[in-house]
């Protein structure tokens, strides 16, 4: 089941990528022809998405490769890399758009409103179709992309509203204003995602899991004297790994230990874990890791 779902994701990412790329090229030309900064900033948005879709499609395929002797955890983290590269591209692009749009506030040019309306309607349709293809993806990667595309649809709805206003009112300043609005919004979200991706990169515990609570529950198990070296980290935002050292009384039997492990697994089963390591130590034995860390 798991595999099927992912191949499905990869296929959908591919379709969304091709749709988006073709449309981005059309848009950049359209933005230049209609003289609209708002269209160009949306084009940047779409270009960022095309890139992230392309990277995701490539890396999603890559991240499903089985683990090797070199990458023992497999390639799951490669999809984090995609999210990271994409963030950087969008930050650079957004900065460029702001440099172009802000001077236009002072002497705005009237864009071609009819052309803008045509592009905006196309924009809503194409991105809407892409969102539809990608709904329900679970990885950080798929979520980031779906979110991007939803934003694109909203961006195009905004362009549509502004271009309709421009048909009736001579308010050319609306165009750079909208452009700056879209760009600031892109930047805000990119920076949020960038922080999330970085924290996963730096092996922070996955969001929404209270590690202290988990420790507390394990320590409350009957035979557990204490625990140490407890680590919870995430490979890609949806596949997590957990390890801990558990100290038990020196007279604990094999059954006691199996039982204790079972209880620990019960506690952590609500977290979606791909890797679990539980090291059992007797009270009177020295912890291998602790001994080493003293020197």
From TrEMBL:
It comes from the Bacteria. It is found in: Membrane. Residues 13-200 form the Cation efflux protein transmembrane domain. Its main location: membrane. Residues 206-281 form the Cation efflux protein cytoplasmic domain. It is a multi-pass membrane protein. Gene3D superfamilies: Cation efflux protein transmembrane domain. The chain crosses the membrane at residues 12-33, 80-102, 114-132, 153-171, 177-194. It holds the Pfam family ZT_dimer. Belongs to the cation diffusion facilitator (CDF) transporter (TC 2.A.4) family. SLC30A subfamily. This is Cation diffusion facilitator family transporter. It comes from Pontibacillus salicampi.
């Amino acid at each position: 089941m798991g595999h099927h779902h992912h191949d499905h994701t990869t296929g959908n990412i591919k379709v969304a990528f091709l749709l988006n790329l073709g449309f981005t090229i059309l848009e950049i030309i359209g933005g230049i022809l209609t003289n609209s900064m708002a269209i160009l900033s949306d084009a940047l948005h779409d270009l960022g998405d095309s890139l992230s879709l392309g990277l995701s499609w490539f890396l999603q395929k890559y991240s499903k490769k089985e683990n090797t002797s070199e990458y023992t955890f497999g390639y799951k983290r490669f999809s984090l890399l995609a999210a990271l590269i994409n963030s950087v591209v969008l930050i650079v692009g957004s900065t460029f758009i702001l440099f172009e749009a802000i001077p236009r506030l002072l002497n705005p040019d009237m864009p071609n409103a009819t052309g803008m309306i045509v592009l905006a309607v196309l924009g809503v349709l194409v991105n809407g179709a892409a969102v539809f293809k990608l709904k329900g993806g679970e990885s950080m990667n798929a979520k980031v992309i779906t979110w991007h595309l939803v934003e694109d649809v909203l961006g195009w709805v905004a362009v549509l509203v502004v271009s309709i206003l421009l048909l009736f009112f001579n308010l050319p300043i609306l165009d750079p204003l909208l452009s700056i609005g879209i760009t600031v919004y892109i930047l805000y979200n990119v920076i949020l995602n960038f922080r999330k991706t970085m924290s996963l990169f730096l092996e922070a515990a996955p969001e929404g899991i209270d590690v202290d609570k988990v420790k507390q529950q394990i320590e409350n198990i009957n035979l557990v004297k204490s625990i140490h070296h407890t680590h919870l980290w995430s490979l890609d935002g949806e596949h997590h790994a957990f390890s801990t050292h558990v100290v038990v009384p020196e007279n604990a039997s094999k059954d006691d230990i199996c039982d204790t492990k079972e209880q620990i697994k019960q506690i952590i089963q609500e977290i979606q874990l791909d890797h679990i390591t539980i090291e059992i130590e007797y009270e009177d034995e020295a912890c291998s890791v602790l001994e080493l860390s003293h020197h």
